[in-house]
Amino acid sequence: MVNANICKLAGFTTAIAFESVFSGGNFIPIHSYADAEGNCKFQFVQGETAQESVDLCEKYLEENPSNAAGSTVVFVSLVTIDGESLEGLTIQFRAFEDEHNGVIELFFPYSGSSESDDFFIHPIRVHAAPEAVVNAIPTILDKFFEGLLEREEGAKILEAHYKK
């Protein structure tokens, strides 16, 4: 099972990302991690291009340069699902204490413009998960949403624009 605090950190970081997306500004990928003492650190990752920023984020998940207990990255991406191209937040996270867990990837699609009433956040999708954690996905998502709801502004955006 993935560390519950890392799942909550992923949710909290996603709430920050929704705030950024909803504000209409340019979204810069976010890397967050929990250090050995359990303190959460956040950084925006900006490379020369959007792809370079995402590559840097994914490198943090693989190499763990901060010697973190766990790490999360969130970035905007386009994903094709059932033949439809959807924009949304890709959330990747992992706990480093157990190398068998690997990276869990979630996708939170949204549509419409944040400047209008047609902005909708669609149900989250598990995009990839290591076999070792597949049975724990419901618990992982519970902890993820617990963390997301801890960030008041991001939680308000989700509640106002979530399309069931």
Secondary-structure blueprint:
Blueprint: H1 4-22, E1 30-34, E2 40-44, H2 50-63, E3 70-81, E4 84-95, E5 104-111, E6 120-121, E7 125-128, H3 137-150, H4 152-161
Antiparallel strand pairs: 1-2, 1-3, 3-4, 4-5, 5-6, 5-7
Your description of this structure?
The structure is a single chain. 35% of the residues lie in helices and 29% in strands. With 164 residues, the chain is an alpha+beta fold. The protein has one domain. Strands 1, 2, 3, 4, 5, 6 and 7 form a 7-stranded antiparallel β-sheet that branches. The mean pLDDT is 86.
Strand segment count: 7
Q: What's the N-to-C terminus distance?
A: 28 Å
Indicate the proportion of strand residues: 25-35%
The parts where pLDDT drops under 50 for at least 5 residues are none
Helical amount:
25-40%
Q: Structural class of the secondary elements?
A: alpha+beta
Number of domains: 1
Radius of gyration, CA atoms, in whole angstroms: 15 Å
Report the principal-axis shape.
globular
Give the ordered list of helices and strands. Answer: HEEHEEEEEHH
The average pLDDT value, as a whole number, equals: 86
Please give the count of helices.
4
Identify the quaternary structure here: single chain
- Biggest sheet record: 7 strands, antiparallel
